[in-house]
Every structure is written in structure tokens, then in C-alpha cells.
Amino acid sequence: MEVEKARFATQNNVENKTMKTSKYLSRALAVTVLGCLGASAAKAGLTANYQISSSTADLEIFGLNYNTGFGNSWSSESGYTGGIQISQVGTPVNGLPSTYTTVCTDVGGIVWMGDTYTYDAKSFLGQAGLDPSWGYNAYGQNGSIINNTLAGEQALAIQNAAAIFYTHFGDLGSGTTVAENAAVQLAVWAALYDTAGNGQVQGITLSGGNYSFSSGRFQVTSGDQAAINLAASWLVGLNGSSSYAGDLLVPDPTTQNGNIAQELLLRTTDADPVPEPTTMVAGALLLLPFGASTLRVLRKNRAA
């Protein structure tokens, strides 16, 4: 039977995919590099080619709804969630890791398993997200962007997401449970899309001892309850007060291999050091990872 890559097609307010047979779709949501400001300045401007390769841990499938921001419309998907590997190809770039495990930030972006993408390292300060923009009130009740509210929420959202990734990056490694692996991605998404102006993550409900993401811009409609409970419990109490500085690996150009690509999160402590100007503080290269990515498979039956 012929196998082809999945394609996204938006109809009304629901995003659909078609494929003749199922194929894992990697949504390597944004690799964010966390660290001190000096390190961020050192990494910014670096460009590398990364290939998306196999996951280093088992993945779990979840039903997802998220507000796309286009006329306040919504997308519904099923997706595998967990850490993936990225590997540099071509001429090595000193200062960025050759191979890395990461997760995603932009729930609507797409990267294909096995394909190669070009990324620029950029400071995440002032970043807004690619697809769709971050922030609980990013598009308002009438579908329009509320600029002042949006800028404030996005700054708080990236700090909440950074706090999750900094604290729970080890849950993406070997020896952890599948639920822990998936929870990192779910928590990062919820932090980015549901952090409000008070710095708190909205849309989290606790009932009968179980949490749910049911009323924010990012919603989980089905999946491993243990992972959902972990992700929500990590988010409760966050208020955007972290002060991380770092980088995002931003796709350049934004559209690659036919789709808006994912930004990627990267822990550059695993990379070769970049020589620092003498004016930079010693230890500025200590970057801590903030990332998550998703492997998706959306199916639609078609006649042979």
C-alpha cells in the first residue's frame, strides 16, 4: 500500500488531515534555549540545519483542541506527545548541540519526521509564538488582537513555560515514565497559551481528584489521565515571576517543507562552547533547556 506524508487542510474551524496510511507526524514545537543573558547574547545569530529523527521515549496520544486565533476559530487534532531528537546535518555549528532531545512550543506548527530544517537562534525575549500566537487573551473575544494585553501575557507565558522546562527537563530522558514524558509537553503548551495577565495559567479544573484542561485556549479532550494530572499540578501556583533569559530556535524561513515549521527548544549545555567576549560574565554559556515536541498521527480513511 502506498504511503504518503500527511497534509493539513483547514475547513471551517477544524483542521483535518488526510493520508492513505498512517504516518507519524512530528510537531517539534519550539526548541527554546534557557540560560543567562550573556549566554543568550552569545547564541543569538547562530544558524544550523537540524534533522528530525526518532523519539527517545515512548509517546502517548491525546485529543487536543486549541484556539487558532483566526476569527477566534478552533482546531481539533489527535497527537502523539513526548520528546523527540534533533540532529545537526551539514557543516557543524559550534555553540549549538549536534544531537538533542527536545519538545515543542507552537501547537500549530509542523515538522516532518526525517526532514531537515534550518533554524536561527534568537532571544525569546519579546517573542510571541508562530502558530498561533501565545497568550490567553491573544485574540480577544471578537477575534482581534488586544496588543497591550497580549504583550504582557506573552512575556509571562514564556517565563511559566521556561519554569516548567527548567524544572522537569529530566522527565524527558530515559528512565522516566511515559506519563512524565508527555506531561512536559502538555504543561509547556498550556503555559504558553493559557497564561493570563495575572501570570496564572487559566483553564485548569480539578474535579474528583483529577485535573482537566477544559476551558482555556489549549484543551485536552482525551488521553492519559496520569500525564494530564502531572502537567496540571506542575502549572498550579505559577505566576510568571521567573526571570529566565535564553533563545528560541526559530525556523528560517518560517515556512519549510510546505508548512509553518516548529520553533524548537534546546539545552545548549550539551553543545560545544562558544568563545565569549571578555566583557561577558563567566559562566554565561550555562543554558538550560526549555522545550517540547509532539509526534502526531492523524488518520482519515480513503477508498483505495
Q: What distinguishing features does this structure have?
A:
304 residues; alpha+beta; six-stranded antiparallel beta sheet; 4 helices; disordered N terminus; disordered C terminus
List the helices and strands and how they pair.
Elements: E1 7-11, E2 14-18, E3 25-27, E4 31-35, H1 37-43, E5 47-53, E6 60-67, E7 74-81, E8 84-88, E9 99-102, E10 111-112, E11 116-123, H2 147-168, H3 178-194, E12 204-207, E13 210-213, E14 218-222, H4 225-235, E15 245-251, E16 255-256, E17 259-260, E18 287-290, E19 294-296
Antiparallel strand pairs: 1-2, 3-10, 3-19, 4-15, 4-18, 5-8, 5-11, 6-7, 6-14, 7-19, 8-9, 11-15, 12-13, 16-17
Reported for the largest beta sheet, the result is: 7 strands, antiparallel
Spatial extent as radius of gyration = 18 Å
User: In percent, how helical is the residue content?
Assistant: 10-25%
Mean residue pLDDT: 74
- Whole-Å distance between the termini? 9 Å
Order of helices and strands: EEEEHEEEEEEEHHEEEHEEEEE
The side-by-side strand order for the widest beta sheet comes to 9-8-5-11-15-4-18
Measured by DSSP, the beta-strand proportion falls in 25-35%
**What's the total count of β strands?**
19
Total of domains: 1
In terms of per-residue confidence, which ranges show pLDDT below 50 for 5 or more consecutive residues?
A: 1-39, 273-304
Broad structural category: alpha+beta
H/I helix tally: 4
Q: What global shape is seen?
A: globular
